[in-house]
Write a structure and sequence with these properties.
- The structure is a single chain.
- The protein is mainly beta.
- Strand 19 (287-290) and strand 20 (296-300) form a beta hairpin.
- Helices cover 6% and strands 34% of the residues.
- It has one helix at 8-31; strands spanning 40-44, 82-86, 114-119, 124-129, 137-140, 147-152, 155-159, 169-174, 180-185, 193-196, 202-207, 215-220, 226-232, 241-242, 248-252, 255-259, 265-270, 278-281, 287-290, 296-300, 307-312, 326-331, 337-341, 356-359, 365-369, 379-384, 394-395, 402-403.
- The protein folds into two domains: 9-86, no CATH class; 113-403, Methylamine Dehydrogenase, Chain H (7 Propeller), CATH 2.130.10.10.
- The chain is built from one helix and 28 strands.
- The strands form eight sheets. The protein has a four-stranded antiparallel sheet, with no helix packed on it. It has a four-stranded antiparallel sheet with strand order 6-7-8-9, with no helix packed on it. A four-stranded antiparallel sheet has the order 10-11-12-13, with no helix packed on it.
């Protein structure tokens, strides 16, 4: 006599009650895995264990357990036991943390920690690491040092001084070692500013270069070829800077003048003293100007062009022969100004100072650094390296340092 088939509901109820045990064992094994463990092979003793969990279609025992999804491997014919790999449960990936984060707070941690300074009197640059002074170095620069720029590949470019006797040009210096790794000289006579462009060429800006008149801007390359030349009105100027809109800021006596690339005057302000030393333009359109012998740094409104804020530097020359001198400055990400206060052209000003300070745009002194007299005489340029990607070239065409991106002109 042929056996009657088992009651379907009774068979389902049996597997329904067995499966939570298999599921529990599977879950325990999965939870025990870590990223360092190899996948575990789970031995399945009977193919019934691979049946779906939950009530059959259109049926209910009145109090069903919540369905638990199970991923199963195909069952070989004949019900041969199989080993099924269990995929470990990996942690959800965390959002990437930026490697270089600008410090934008008005707090102690945002004061300068790493700087490269140019010393006019001693003709050298100085690397200062306030967190790890063992990494400090000093470098005597052939032709002296006036302008400094981070140019990428862990290097800075140093432009020579106009009255040093030469050789005139630029040097590339490795930040880690403080050694010159490349020099390009002899393109022009003495100049006052040097800037590396996004295309890899270099701007040299000086008085009457290559037979020109006024402030002459020469674009050159490593082969010493002159790629382009522009000239603007200007006399007794010092550090020349560009802005993101392609404009140039050039001193003309006591006036700081903003010119478009084709030489049209866009804006100017009389800073009350000579030389009108340096200017930067912020993304807001505000202009910030160092007044040289005026000893002040002024901020000018973007719309009206009028002066709105003033930073007054103290007199530091111990001989009292020179008042405060507002030379090159840097704008750091929290909006403050890191200033240099040049104390004179002789080699005896090491005790005058502090020569490097940080102010809010409203003129509040929030930090200063007293230099070592044995290393330094008179600082007149500063490059703050904190939280920058040293592998990329940076400039101050937008105020605070940022990767070079502006096309020239």
């Amino acid at each position: 006599m042929q056996k009657q088939p088992k009651n379907k509901n009774r068979d389902w109820t049996k597997s329904h009650r067995v499966m939570p045990i298999a599921t529990l064992l599977l879950s325990t094994l999965v939870l025990d895995l870590s990223c360092s463990q190899r996948p575990v092979l789970l031995k399945i003793d009977h193919s019934d264990d691979l049946l779906p969990v939950g009530p059959p279609p259109n049926e209910s025992d009145g109090d069903p357990l919540p369905p638990t999804p199970v991923t199963s491997a195909p069952i070989p014919a004949g019900g041969i036991p199989v080993s099924m790999p269990v995929t470990p449960v990996l942690p959800m990936p965390m959002p990437g943390v930026p490697k270089f984060v600008a410090c934008t707070e008005q707090s102690e941690k945002c004061h300068p920690h790493q700087m490269i300074l140019a010393d006019y009197s001693l003709g050298k640059i100085i690397y200062v690491n306030l967190d790890d002074p063992k990494k400090d170095w000093d470098l005597d620069v052939p032709g002296g040092a006036r302008d400094i720029q981070l140019i990428g590949n862990n290097r800075v470019m140093v432009g020579t001084v106009e009255n040093s006797g030469g050789p005139y040009g630029w040097h590339e210096v490795d930040i880690a070692t403080g050694k010159i790794v490349k020099s390009v000289t002899g393109v022009t006579a003495a100049f006052l500013s040097a800037q590396r462009l996004a295309n890899g060429n270099t701007l040299l800006i000086g008085d009457g270069l290559l037979g020109g008149s006024g402030a002459v801007v020469v674009e050159t390359n490593d082969k010493k070829e002159v790629v382009s030349k522009r000239q603007f009105p200007g006399q007794n100027f010092r550090t020349v800077r560009r802005s993101r809109d392609g404009h140039f800021f050039i001193g003309n006596g006591s006036n700081m003048v903003e010119y478009s690339a084709d030489g049209k005057e866009v804006w100017q302000a009389d800073v009350g003293a000579q030389p009108a030393y340096m200017a930067l333009k912020l993304p807001s359109g505000e202009r910030v100007v160092a007044s040289g012998h005026g000893g002040k740094i002024y901020t000018y409104d973007a719309k009206t062009g009028l002066k709105t804020k003033t930073v007054s530097l103290p007199d530091i020359d111990s001989t009292h022969s020179m008042t405060a001198f507002a030379s090159a400055f840097a704008i750091i990400p929290n909006g403050n100004y890191v200033t240099t206060n040049w104390s004179g052209g002789t080699k005896t000003h090491g005790n005058d100072g502090p020569q490097v300070s940080e102010y809010t745009p409203d003129g509040k002194l929030v930090w200063s650094w007293k230099q070592q007299a044995s290393r330094i005489s008179s600082i007149y340029a500063v490059l703050v390296l904190d939280n920058l990607d040293l592998s990329k070239a940076h400039d101050d065409t937008a105020g605070p340092l940022a990767p070079v991106q502006s096309a020239y002109p």
